[in-house]
Amino acid sequence: AVIPVKVTLTGATPPSTASSTFTFVLQGAAGAPMPASDTITIDGTGSGRFGPIAYTVPNTYSYTLYQVGGSVNGYTYDATAYDVKVYITSDNAGNLSSTVWLYKQGTSTKQNTAEFANRYQVKTDIPKTGYDNDAQDYVDNAFAWLKDLL
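Request: output the structure for the sequence above.
Response:
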């Protein structure tokens, strides 16, 4: 079985200095077979997958799939987590087949792919303008002091 993952990137185009590599983790419940790697990365908008995962016994296997939050300024990382169910069945000849369903945690809607939507927004520092109370108080006090001297 394979577990598909898709990421879309919305918002502004990130600068070339901002990493657009996103990391996803698959955690198996006790006894669940795992793929060769429990982590995948996807660059920018794109798709990836966990697996193949080899199964030897008919059963229902449970996993949790999520994105690792990053620290690149400007990005909002999708914090959605998925419950993944892999149903392994056997035919009369003993051949195994798999069905994979993904559910956003807290929902019962089946999905074929774990979908994550990340956003990049340009962060700008807005210069301070207008009246500054501290500076004005300083000026007022200085003039009051000077007036007392005269």
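The chain has a mean pLDDT of 88.
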